[in-house]
Amino acid sequence: MNVVVVESPAKAKTINKYLGKDYTVLASYGHIRDLPSKDGSVKPDEDFAMDYQNDAKSAKHIKAIADALKDADNLYLATDPDREGEAIAWHVLKVMEEKKKLKTAKVSRVVFNEITKKAVLDGIANPRELDMNLVNAQQARRALDYLVGFTLSPVLWRKLPGAKSAGRVQSVALRLICERELEIEAFVPEEYWTIDADFNTASGDKITARLTHLKNDKLDKFSLPNADLANAAGEAVRAGNFKVASVTKKPAKRNPSPPFTTSTLQQEASRKLGFGAKRTMMVAQKLYEGFDIGGETTGLITYMRTDGVTLANEAIDACRSVIASEYGDKFVPSSPRVYKTKSKNAQEAHEAIRPTDLSRTPAQMAQYLDKEHLRLYELIWKRTIASQMESAQLERTTVDFSDGNGQTLRATGSVIRFSGFLKLYEEGQDDEDNDKDGKRLPAVDEGEVMTTNEVREDQHFTEPAPRYSEASLVKKLEELGIGRPSTYASIISVLQDRDYVKLDQKRFIPEDKGQLVTAFLSAFFTRYVEYDFTAQLEERLDDISDAKIDWKQVLRDFWNDFTVSVEGTSELRVSDVLEELNKILGPHIFPEKEDGSDPRDCPKCDDGRLSLKTGRFGAFIGCSNYPECRYTRQLGASEEEAEAATADEGPKELGLEPDSGLMITLRNGPYGPYLQLGEAEPKKKPKRVSIPKDIPLEDVDFEMALQLISLPREIGPHPETGSMITANLGRYGPYVECDKKYGRLASGMEVLTVGMNRAVELLATAKTRGGAGRAAPPLRVVGAHPDDGADINVKDGRYGPYVTHGGINATIPKSSDPMTITLEEAVTLLAERAAKSGKKPKKAAAKKTPAKKAPAKKTAAKKTTAKKAAPKKKAASKE
To answer: Which pLDDT score is estimated for 643?
Structure first.
């Protein structure tokens, strides 16, 4: 009997069919053990010993593998063919060794780049030993990320309230986005003008040319900086009689791009399909694992985490065959194209991403794939085929027109003489790329006289570099050698989940929280957010893979310097941090005013100065004369926006509250506008109510203010229990409450309008705080959990949508749609949550019921152990 361990259950089913009854194929479901989410799991003082702990979700999978090994002759570790896969295989081996389950089985490592019968059988027939260099490179990366997260994040929490976490690579990616935003804010547009003329040829065609020489002087971009000079140049063109001075035609050639790597696939899927990096990898994963094609599950693409651009010889032959049959022999180059990876730090030498069978055209696959998977498959298929097609043949034409008096205009264009690969595929472009070929020009002859039709003086302004899109950010990270393509999707997700950046019109805009974190790290941990340093560390990880350096030495070198930097912040006061951040972010927080006045002058008092301050809930802008002057505004809000919430000279009086006779005022606080009843008294705070974000300030008149300040609002007695139902605003938004059961309202306005029927409906599906209640119905059922077959549900909670199974709840990241989240994603989220919390699904807990009959001392001991195992700190995010 032979046991084969892969990562996913989908792969296990497919491979089991290929190998037959003599093989048992089991899934590890990813990592079966990892560093527990608590400080101290990596021990620098013990030469970086790492305390691995079996994942809570993995107990069943570990047992299945262990049971299968009882009578096994061979254990084939067939996890993914990269560093992470090598590490997973090693962890499986170590756990089985600890359980003494390898008495008779011979252990081999098996890799295959695609899930096809031929590839799987070839892999089994040619096993190898585990590559400990790859394992150690992965361990080093994991330890570095862990040490940075658990060491740097607490510094952030102490010195910069409101910050959530810092990561070794995520912080560098955030710096890129923040620095681009500061560049845009500091950018000063520069004016320039161009002169274009439309000429009519003798044959009646129109040709447009641009002025390049004025009075025999060559013009550069800023030679005509204003309207006066532009008008004078335009008049000189209008006064001239032009003829064709020269016609230059040069042949040109365009070669196809290489087949996809992980990075280029993410970039191109973003440009052409609108897919984010995470979505691209999810869809590619399913294409790799396979679909049912003709009654057999077959992988449709090769492994999708790769830096390589090479193709196997059989793939090249298949490409050339498809090209000849589909497009003709003239589209097949005389010899195959060979691509080489340009990146000096490319990882393991895998093939590029390509279809496993090039004869499976997108049209043929349309009946088996849904729209999303078909679109990505088509992109990969076209790119692969095009990479082996003949070059496109172009003819670039330049026509110069002269009036004989020093004025020259030029028109450029190109003609495609042979389309070559362009017949099938052309690479998408970012906003920064402007190398597209010009338009086709009509035929003209030297000496031909032109008739001037129209002359235009056009005004232009220089523009800053655009904000990063997912495609351009991935491209930049790869250019700098930061991170690895397989990590880019998770890096981008973390930045969005931490509310450090937002995606607006497919462009990343840093939130003020992200700007603060970047400024803090740049000021006090400069070296560790430098692009060169991060890239060099990636190179050292690659050196570990190549057996050029000991992995522990890399950790020692990093840790020795890093701890010095951290210790240097121990005496740092929050006031020192704020002073430095005020210097770095001054232009961002206090942009220049149009009237030239000092943007830091307090608008409320005569001599106050505005500066960055921090409170319990994060940073805000406040006056230096506090507490005499209580002017504040939210970070990121303009002075005008702050004034909209209050009168020019202070709180805006809305009217007297009838019962108390106290004035209701509209005020602006560091966390937004609010209503206040009366004034503060010694040892007594006035009643305050925040104005919900979905209620426009202009709608807050006296009538609405009276309703808000009177909250909670009594809706009426519950028809079944008789207890009063109330509506109110809480820390987490508007809600209804009755007998400690809470129902969440959809908007702030609804707290003023919700009626009895709606309230009863919400309460009927609500949970009772502090006790058991009827669970809310799920928004949707994702599917059956592979461990026990019980449903995984999506529900809407106080903190947003989440997935739940067996008593384990896991928040769905903002970057994921709760209505389309896949079963595999849900299982992963639940497993990560279980590992962090130390909780086990209810089914596992139920097996321990007999423990209740044990003596009290034994029970107490179990509880003590459970407390010890609980995480001391919140886990810092991975890259």
So the answer is: 58
Residues 6+ apart with CB under 8 A from 633: 620, 621, 639, 641, 642, 668, 670
DSSP 359-398: TS-HHHHTTTS-HHHHHHHHHHHHHHHHTTSPPEEEEEEE
580, exposed or middle or buried, with CB in 10 Å at 0-12, 13-18, 19+? middle
229 phi and psi angles, rounded to 5 deg: -65, -40
User: CA of 120: how far to CAs of 6, 23, 76, 113, 579, in Å?
Assistant: 12, 12, 12, 9, 61
pLDDT given at position 3: 94
Question: What's the topology of domain 262-390?
Answer: Topoisomerase I; domain 4 (1.10.290)
Q: Measured at the alpha carbon of residue 796, what is the angle toward residues 778 and 761, in degrees to the nearest 5?
A: 70
Residue the block writes with tokens 């094609």: 293
Question: Where are the chain's structural domains?
Answer: 2-130, 140-187+466-574, 191-255+393-461, 262-390, 713-764, 780-847
Residue with tokens 């006045």: 597
- Tell me the fold of 2-130: Rossmann fold (3.40.50)
How many residues would you count in the chain?
879
- Cα-based distances in Å from 794 to 34, 779, 789, 822: 27, 5, 16, 11
CATH class name, domain 191-255+393-461: mainly beta
108 and 127 Cβ atoms separated by less than 8 Å: yes
pLDDT of residue 638: 61
Annotated catalytic, 303?
yes
Cα-based torsion angle of the residue sequence 165, 167, 171, 172 in order, rounded to the nearest 10 degrees: 180
Token pair 């003819």 in the structure block, residue: 395
Q: Which of 732, 729, 777, 736 is nearest to 759 (CA)?
A: 736
Query: Distances from the Cα of 139 to the Cαs of 561, 623, 721, in angstroms?
Result: 20, 49, 59
Torsion of CA 469, 470, 474, 480, to 10 degrees: 30
CATH of domain 140-187+466-574: 1.10.460.10
Count the neighbouring beta carbons within 10 Å of the beta carbon of residue 175.
22
What pLDDT, on the 0 to 100 scale, is given for residue 851? 43
Q: Measured between alpha carbons, how far is 802 from 779 in angstroms, rounded to an integer?
A: 10
Instruction: Yes or no: say if 91 and 33 are a contact pair by the CB < 8 Å rule.
Output: yes
Distance of alpha carbon 651 from alpha carbon 646, whole angstroms: 5
**Within its chain, how far is the Cα of 459 from the centroid?**
38
Residues 613 and 619: beta-carbon distance below 8 Å: yes
Evaluate whether 495 touches 477 at the Cβ level (below 8 Å): no
CB 655 within 8 A of CB 663: yes
Of 209, 631, 224, whose CA–CA distance to 400 is shortest? 209
Output the CA angle 274-278-280, nearest 5 degrees: 55
Mean pLDDT by 10 residues, the chain (879 residues): 89 88 91 83 92 87 92 92 92 93 91 89 94 94 90 83 78 94 91 96 90 96 96 95 94 94 93 91 92 86 90 93 95 94 55 93 94 96 97 94 96 91 85 54 90 95 94 91 83 87 91 89 89 89 92 94 88 84 86 85 88 74 85 71 51 86 84 84 84 82 90 90 90 83 85 89 66 54 81 76 87 75 84 76 48 41 39 40
AA letter at 34: D
pLDDT at residue 430, as a whole number: 61
Specify whether the CB–CB gap between 191 and 226 falls below 8 A.
Answer: yes
Q: Can you say whether residue 716 is alpha, beta or left, with left for phi > 0 and alpha for psi between -120 and 50 degrees?
A: left
User: Could you tell me if residue 691 is left (phi over 0), alpha (psi between -120 and 50 degrees) or otherwise beta?
Assistant: beta
**Which among 29, 146, 192, 303 is annotated as catalytic?**
303
C-alpha span between 37 and 835 (Å, rounded): 8
d(CA 153, CA 140) in angstroms, rounded, equals 19
pLDDT of residue 793: 87
